[in-house]
Design a protein that fits this description.
The structure is a single chain. The strands form five sheets. This protein has a six-stranded antiparallel β-sheet, with helices on one face. It is of the alpha+beta class. The chain contains twelve helices and 27 strands. The chain is elongated, with a radius of gyration of 34 Å. The longest helix has about 45 residues, at about 285-330. Mean pLDDT is about 80; it is low at about 1-5, about 110-130, about 260-265 and about 560-565.
Length: about 575
């Protein structure tokens, strides 16, 4: 069956679990897929899991279908085995049972069927004199380029292919895409030469004078003979060194911002520029300029679309990374705290975003005491979560019998010496023995509340430094004697600073009053009651801080298990 031309109709994204992503254009049908180019495959896949004659894309009524041509263990489309099926945009194709290789089918809009650049480019057909096969071929390349620009390929691939088409159309020596940096200066991002070869962007030295002219005039600039151009351009260093004779610069501007201040002049943002140059004089014909003008008039809006796709993919990648960080952090936070011989505990951690900066823990020490810890790292998000994880690793050293005061002083100096971290943490760390003696170290954290015989008080008053805030800060331990059935409430400021829709704070007084209502209740009832009070107060208002609670009740060892928890 003879090959049928189908330029720009589709592409295949090739995704390996252990190799870089790539995309291949489907330029003719049937389009053969298999192992080895020597077997006539248009898409040769160098992998022993792929059969030599694997599959083929073929023309079908209303689209393109895939056919199984002998792949070991068959082919699967969207997880379902198939011998042949018509493909839709975004269909996922698995070759065999192994998940190592996956193809994603992308259907491109046909040249002339969409909106944007195509109608303007097709109108250029009327400007051709006679039946020029060469010019028609060049125009087809531009139509293919316009179709490609509407695809969902990665931006780098779109830009590289557009530059290749521009070189083929104009016979330029080089083509570049430049984008503005933070200062607004155009810098080369992608550079190509004939034959589809990449050039190192860092080594490119385009004519800055030609670029400046195009940006200032806000239109395409064509210099037919740089030696005859204005004196500034003629003496430009980059032109002399590279012996350039002709250059074209097409500035690309985006749509005006809709959020411009009222009455302010709306300006089109500069997205970048397409730059072509040649060592030949008069290298760019009149038709080239018309085609490039038509292409440039639409390329800016298409570039905005490509940038949007790129931002969406980056957002998805970040969401995946945050999800991984969230799962790691949740795994580190204690789940289902168990009671110990002389204390009962319960706690919860509710982050306000994907990952938070709060942390709590309760764990036994070799000397029979139990450690009680709550911490709140400044800031939110991934940075706070990373420091929280580091704190947990550091404080785990307490199980080796290390003096808590020495650990706090060391941790403070470490964070201060690494100021680039830009984070500090408030912490409360206590050690409770079977006799009810609580030895604790505080570092800028709110005092735990003590519920004793229906009355609520603070364990301590006065301020202290967080760890990592001041290098001169030192920490010391204090002691407090608990009585049987004393209940401690440890919390982070996300509780007292919870806001309602009018930005009023829940506050310490409400927390004390709520805690006081549960003198003889189980720890779970206390925790649930405080959380319900905070939620009722906030009435669905979005919170800006994590909410963490840790409730601890001291009991003499003989009393454990006699009261509900």
């Amino acid at each position: 069956m003879p090959a049928q031309p189908a330029p720009g109709l589709a592409c295949l994204e090739i995704v390996f679990s252990d190799r870089p992503w790539q995309a291949v254009s489907v330029d003719e049908l049937p389009f053969l897929i298999g192992r080895g180019r020597e077997n006539g495959n248009h898409l040769p896949i160098d992998d022993l899991r792929i059969s030599r004659r694997c599959a083929a894309l073929c023309a079908a009524p209303g689209g393109i279908r895939i056919e199984d041509r002998g792949q070991l263990n068959g082919i699967y489309v969207n997880g379902a085995p198939t011998k042949e099926t018509t493909l839709r945009d975004g269909d996922k194709i698995r070759l065999g049972m192994d998940d190592g290789c996956q193809l994603v089918f992308r259907l491109r809009p046909e040249a002339g069927s969409g909106q944007g650049a195509t109608p303007d480019l097709r109108a250029l057909l009327g400007s051709l004199e006679g039946d020029s096969a060469d010019e028609l071929k060049r125009l087809r390349l531009v139509l293919d380029a316009a179709s490609l620009l509407q695809s969902r390929l990665p931006l780098e691939s779109v830009l590289a292919t557009i530059l290749d088409h521009a070189i083929a159309i104009t016979a330029a020596d080089r083509a570049m895409f430049l984008e503005p940096d933070s200062s607004g200066t155009l810098q080369v991002r992608v550079a190509r030469e004939g034959g589809g070869l990449d050039l190192e962007p860092e080594t490119m030295n385009p004519s800055r004078t030609a670029l400046r002219q195009a940006v200032e005039q806000r239109c395409t600039v064509v210099n037919e003979d740089l030696n005859l151009a204005d004196l500034n351009l003629k003496t430009a260093q980059s032109v002399l060194i590279q012996l350039l004779r002709s250059a074209v610069v097409i500035p690309l501007y985006g749509k005006p911002r809709e959020d411009s201040p009222s009455g302010a002049a709306r300006t089109d943002p500069l997205l970048g520029a397409i730059y072509l140059d040649s060592r030949r004089t008069s290298a760019f014909s009149a038709l080239d300029r018309e085609i490039l003008d038509a292409l440039g008039a639409q390329a800016a809006s298409v570039l905005e679309s490509a940038l949007m796709v790129q931002r969406e993919r980056e957002k998805q990648r970040m969401e995946q990374e945050l999800d991984i960080a969230r799962k790691i952090q949740q795994a580190l936070v204690p789940q289902g705290l168990k009671d110990f011989p002389h204390l009962a505990v319960t706690g919860l951690h509710r982050p306000c975003s994907e990952v938070g900066g709060d942390y709590f823990d309760v764990f036994p020490l070799p000397d029979g005491r139990n450690a009680i810890l709550i911490a709140d790292v400044s800031g939110k998000g991934l940075g706070a979560a990373l420091l929280t994880t580091m704190l947990q690793g550091t404080l785990s050293g307490m199980t080796l019998g290390v003096d808590p005061v020495k650990v706090f002083n060391h941790l403070n100096l470490f964070l201060c010496e690494h100021a680039e971290v830009g984070r500090y943490a408030t912490m409360f760390f206590g050690l409770l023995d079977s006799a009810g003696t609580l030895e604790f170290v505080r570092a800028g954290h709110p005092s735990p509340l003590l519920l004793r015989r229906g009355k609520v008080s603070e364990l301590y008053s006065g301020g202290s430094f967080p760890v990592g805030l001041a290098e001169e800060a030192t920490f010391k331990s204090s002691r407090y004697q608990l009585e049987p059935e004393d209940t401690l409430l440890l919390f982070t400021d996300g509780v007292t600073e919870a806001q309602d829709k009018s930005a009023n704070l829940f506050g310490m007084e409400r927390l004390i009053d709520t805690f006081r209502r549960y003198p003889d209740s189980s720890l779970h009832a206390i925790q649930a009651g405080i959380l319900a009070a905070v939620e009722s107060f906030s009435a669905g208002a979005k919170q800006s801080d994590d909410i963490t609670l840790l409730v601890v009740r001291y009991r003499q060892p003989a009393d454990i298990g006699q009261a509900p928890v």
